[in-house]
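Moderator note: this is an archived Q&A kept for reference. The question asked for a predicted structure of one protein chain; the sequence and the answer are reproduced below.
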Amino acid sequence: MKYLYTKKLLYFLVDKHMATINNLRADQVNRLVRTTKDYAATKNKKVTTIDPILRIGKNLYPTLTNRELIELSQTALRIILNEVEAPTYQTTLFAHI
């Protein structure tokens, strides 16, 4: 009986640890996306490759290995390319105000 509770406790601890790691990774990717978009807006360029994201990632997270940095950068590039940008033109409803 004691073995069953120990096993459940281990599963709970592993799940909690993995959730913490996933939140950390999501925060890292979010920060990388925001910083890359700000950099691209400053330079007036569009991000279409992983190279500028890697460059910024090396500055933000110098302790990460190249493999981890490439994984983060690929995820960030997918997010940047799949975001739908809001139209910059003004609608006729707000043009008369």
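Archived answer notes: DSSP finds four helices and no strands in the chain.
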